[in-house]
Description:
The structure is a single chain. The chain is mostly helical. Helix content is 83%, strand content 0%. It has nine helices and no strands. The chain has helices at 2-38, 42-55, 60-72, 76-89, 93-109, 113-126, 131-153, 156-180, 185-217. Helix 6 packs antiparallel against helix 7 (131-153).
Amino acid sequence: MKCLRYIIVIMICLVAGNEAAFAQSDRISVRMGNKYYRQQNFDKAEVEYRKALGKNPRNTQAMYNLGCALLQQQKDSAAIVQLENAGKAETSAKRKAMAYHNIGVICQSHQMYGEAIQAYQESLRNNPDDNETRYNLALCKHLQKKQNDNKNNGGGNDKKDDKKEQNQKDNENNKDNSKQQKQTPKDQMSKENAEQLLNAAVQDEKATQQRMKKAMQEPRRRQLQKNW
């Protein structure tokens, strides 16, 4: 009887030892993946994180880091899947918030504002003090409203404005052509210089507006891509 008990104890110890070795093995793969990630070798990092998940499918650190590695490779759809898995399985509220924040960033970059809003809201539920997520949420709501307004208007106002502007330019050109016949060469040269300066100013203004528009639409990316 004592011998039997001894054998059972040995078997339990062996099982526990195997599980510990198995767990240690997936952590080693995560550490290797983190090493490659820091070296910006994201494809090799992806391989190591997948190895870790193969050994331990419940490893939320591997899920999240795999999502970040995929994001760095512009595999956005696959990245969202892994980040969602991490967000659902993770017990730490802060890490949940990080996962959903990154999902929001991906959706926002594709102008999927509805999905981005949902992700940012979920992130704030887990980390209400995150001001950058709150900023991105407000920006997405603004951009979604603007996107919906453009769809409802069908872009008609822009086309009308462009046509009106073109008609004005044509009228001005016709007036300028009629005046050129009465102008002296000196007056004509001055007018050409003025038009060149005006065109240059208009181009600078357009470039400035485009930069401002791009800056408004770009989400504030926190450095959440770094590994856990």
